[in-house]
């Protein structure tokens, strides 16, 4: 395989990259023919040796190739087509089936930029598949290419979960910056469309928390009864990584609560402004009422209109209107001060 050419692509089988690990040195990149060779002798690999295969599931031939050349359990293929994609790790026939949600490389706080990574982990192999380029698994590839040494497939999985927590931490940090900006606009009384922006951000965080939070029941069963090939140190590292991930999810929940309180504050501020505008409009209407009533009465073409023949009739009417308007203004000001 041409590694530069396959940075986000894959070969005809859908394989993006493949590595062989010996436990003593950095992972060695494998070509397509070498992958088939190692798969043929996977059961005879040394205990410390294992391989990682990463596939592009958007390639139509990927699933067929996996069925023909790997010994993945049927539960793995069923998970590829299940509607539920919440993050979970389950034990199936000496294999771990993991469903991990992640964000795309160019994540821009759009809910459509969340995608799924499926993994099948066994004693000497980890198979990962995705339909879109994802951040966390790419961080794992960069770590392998940088020469980081891994002792087991579970170390790869644990590293991936920690990379996912780092990505989520970055999202929370960026979301916090956006919320700080909204608060600054609120203090400066320049809200514009910030309330709608907060709603979009809150919905995104809720969806991220729902998809990324591991299912406690499945994880509890795995940690209580891990596969026989899973070392105690791997169990400890997996438990520790999930605890770190839970801290990030807790920070995300706190951020959602902060957004909720900020939305309520903005709603109260907008409601106060609306009430103020309505009060001013009411005052203007009350002050204009004497003029409108008097003009309507004086404009009727009927007999008996007072001061119609008096040369000072106009000024008398103006004085009465001014007096009534002044009284109405005083009453309105009194109620305003009372509020």
Structure description:
The protein is rod-shaped, with a radius of gyration of 35 Å. It has two domains: 15-267, CorA soluble domain-like (Beta Polymerase, domain 2), CATH 3.30.460; 275-338. 26% of the residues are buried. A hairpin with a 2-residue loop joins strand 4 and strand 5 (95-103). Strands 2-1-3-7-6-5-4 form a seven-stranded mixed beta sheet, sandwiched between helices. Helix 4 packs across helix 5, helix 5 runs parallel beside helix 8 (232-298) and helix 8 (232-298) packs antiparallel against helix 9. Helix content is 57%, strand content 13%. By secondary structure, the chain is α+β, with helices and mostly antiparallel strands. The protein has nine helices and seven strands.
- Number of helical runs? 9
For the record, the CATH architecture of the largest domain stands as 2-Layer Sandwich
How many separate domains make up the residues? Answer: 2
The CATH class of the largest domain is Alpha Beta
Helix content: 55-70%
At the fourth level of CATH, the homologous superfamily of the largest domain is CorA soluble domain-like
Sheet having the most strands: 7 strands, mixed
Low-confidence stretches: 1-8
Distance between the termini: 77 Å
Number of strands: 7
Oligomer, anyone?
single chain
Strand order of the largest sheet: 2-1-3-7-6-5-4
